[in-house]
Amino acid sequence: MPAAGHREIRRRQRRRRVPHPRFFADRSNPLESLSAEEVFSRYRFRPDSIIYITGLIYNSLLKSKRNQAVTPILQVLTCLRYLATGCYFREVGDLMGVSVRSVGRAVRLVCQSIFALNKQFIKFPTGLTAMHTKAVFSNIAGFPKVLGCIDGTYIKLKKPQEHEEEFVNRKGYHSLNVQAICDGKYRFISMKGNMPGSVHDSRIWKLSALRQQFDAGMHDGFLIGDSGYPCQRYLMTPFLNPSTPGQQRFNKSLYRTRVTIEQTFGIWKHRFTCLQKGIRSCPADVVEINGTCAVLHNIGIDRHDIVDFDYIFENHQHNNELNLQNTMPPQRDGTATRQLIVYFLFDTSQQLTVIY
């Protein structure tokens, strides 16, 4: 080997032996240095709620005894900062004082842990909860026996590598079509978020497990949807061409009730900016992030950590609902049910006798 080659080898060996100084990033706990409102503006939750969320998933988070390890609370804060801003991992890492890989691990692990709690925090109302839900909706616009409002929304994602054309929605970009149902307090009570953007809302509903439950008679009440859904005995949609004052009043009440799901989507996406900007990940990861944001949204509502909602129903009587069971034919379709609601509630020319 030529002498120049030996000199190059010795130079590389000496360079390997030179110790590099370790770099310790500033990882101070933001909960200790920022006020509650400053924490809320950056992470979309106040300190006590962040501690509560960390306690829910503490056993699933990475723990290490190494110096300058990323603590569980910092892992949760890193994930919340990503969901709140929708920034690249490098930018989130610079803000939090961690590496890009640490951000990726924290986001992935925290989202997986929170998404696993979806059955605990996203539940369709039954029993006394269903009665309370009907009472809340009845106070909005007087529509009877409403269990939830249903609609779909697009969540933008990067171009998938497989079946790319299925994810192009009617607006021309790649997305998932997320079908959700909310209650009168802007909480999600059902969500199906794994369908490509090209799938129509009515098809998602047709394939959902909740529809099968309604078909089997497991729920006593109505869902409220727009004209994109079929009118069924348990799914009320507006009249496309209302011809009577009663039908017009029916539509007005339905629209005022159905706007709840639009407001829920607005609160949800405003809180988690990543849902507005789009998620630069594969569809499977986007489904998990959507579900995580839905669980966190409900946690925020339950802990009054979004907006001050004041719903007090101590003096409300739950038995002031229109009883339609004894007046409807056993085999009724959606059109007959809708017309009967108009006849008993919205047609002022009739002498109404409401059965309590």
Automatic annotation (TrEMBL):
Belongs to the HARBI1 family. Its main location: cytoplasm. InterPro entries: HARBI1-like (IPR045249), HARBI1_animal (IPR026103), HARBI1_dom (IPR027806). It holds the Pfam family DDE_Tnp_4. It comes from the Eukaryota. Keywords: Cytoplasm, Hydrolase, Metal-binding, Nuclease, Nucleus. Its cofactor is a divalent metal cation. GO terms for cellular component: cytoplasm; nucleus. Transmembrane segments: none annotated. This is Putative nuclease HARBI1. The keyword Cytoplasm applies.
